[in-house]
Every structure is written in structure tokens, then in C-alpha cells.
Amino acid sequence: MPQLTWLVTGCTSGLGEVFIQRILARGDKAIATGKGNTNRLRALVDAGARAYSLDVTASQSDINGVVAKIMEENGDIDVLVNNAGYIEAGLAEETSIENYLAQFETNLFGVVKMTQAVLPHFRAKKAGTVVMIGSSGGIGGEPGAGPYCATKFALEGWYDCLRQETAPLGIKNVIFELGFFRTKIMHPDNVKTFRSEHISDYDDMRNLVAGFVQITNGSQPGDPKKAVEIMLDVVKGEGVAEGRELPERLPLGPDVLKTMRKRCVNNLAICNEWEDVIRSTNVEE
What we know:
By secondary structure, the chain is an alpha/beta fold. The protein is 47% helix and 14% strand. The chain has helices at residues 14-25, 42-47, 60-74, 97-125, 146-166, 203-216, 224-236, 254-273, 275-278, and strands spanning 5-8, 29-34, 50-53, 79-82, 88-89, 129-135, 172-178, 192-193, 249-252. Helix 1 (14-25) packs across helix 7 and helix 3 (60-74) packs parallel to helix 4.
């Protein structure tokens, strides 16, 4: 496969950093972006990446300007990886609207704005791939993760629409549903934890969730390097993906596989048990 140019968001640490490292290792061109000063991306630049300051919560015009500069200085983009995101941990009733909005600004609207900035270039050449980073939190909700799960569920719906709308234009889309991988996403510096006013009725649940976050950080079962290698294979049609069709969505990790299967089985059981009722709602002709 010819050399590809990848644009990746959220590269200051975690999965984004691994993406850039593995893209370069395959001989492709990597463009790393991150919020704030590009000094945080220095190690990736030293490895051969180009780096740009890009905040996915900025205005559409600002993001368009950065993408235009990237393309002017580096040529065409072949793959956009919408990786930037964080976890807003909070109980559904306690979390303030302001914190919900902040979570959506990054995890959903940031993806929308980045994709809208790149799509005109993909449409012009009738080619290109948009990669979404989904989550088990977009398949099944978990206590204390309401804001985060809401963004990931919303991303699933938006992705399905985008995929159908852009497929006739030669544009490919894929969403990877990630389980728990050993990155810094659950580090206390990254997880925004219970920032709203507490309701005493939820004290036990809140403490349980806080304890889960604490013990999970640094002990997640998933190896991010293995996940990224598979994602690169899928986009390029190489390795484990050779000879396979590009999937609409692909779960990665035994934990998310369990969540997805449970959801599918439960939905099928409801359809089967209630089919007569479900089919009874049409207007009588």
C-alpha cells in the first residue's frame, strides 16, 4: 500500500501518542496535534512527526484554519483519526449542565468540527478515511459515567449517519469500540471527577465509582500498542485485516466484546418476546 498521511488529534499522551509512534514505524507520515504548546509533542517531532497546536473545542473557523495550514505545509491528508477526548465522571442527577456541555464540546462536537474541516478535501479527491474512537461506554452505560457515555452514544448515532452519507463519495469510515486500555485516560490529572454539588442519597454510589476509577487507573487489561496496530491494519487492509471487508464498527478488548454481545442478545430477546406488540402499532388500513 502506498504511503499514507495521517492526522491524529489528542496526541500529548495516551492512545494518540501511540498512534503517531506506530504510524511512523510503518513508514507513513504522521501529523500530531494537541491542545496548547507543541512542546508537549516534542518527542513525537523528534521521532519524525509534524506537530501542530490544535484545540478541538475551538471555533470551526479556527480549526479549519489549522487544517488548511497543515495541508499547505504537508500536502494531502489520507486518514483523520478523531482521538481527542476525556472522561467526565459524574452521577446523572448530580452533574451540572456546564460539565455535560464541556464533555460534549470535546468528545462529540470536537469530532464533528474536525471531520467537517477535513471532509471537503476528502470529497474533492473522492477518497479518505475517517476514524472514530468509540468506547464500551457507547454501547452500555455504567454508573458514574453518564456524561462520558452520553457523548459516546451520541457519537455512535452521528457516525452511522456520516458513514451512509459519505460512502457514495468514496469516503471510508470506521469506529473502533475500545474497552479498558492501559493509557492515562483514567489518571487523576485527566479524569474530571464529581465536580458538581453532591447529593447525599448518592454517597454510596459515588464512593463506589471513585474507588473503581482509582483501582482501574494503571491496571487496565488492554495493551494500547496492540490495539493501535490492529486499527492501523484495519484502515490499511493489512495484517489481521488482509482479505477482510472494512467493518462498520469493531470492538477491541474482551471486556467490550462482552458488553456488545450482552447488549445484542438482550435486544434480540426483547424483539422476540414482544414482537407481536411491536408489530401492532401501524395504522389500520
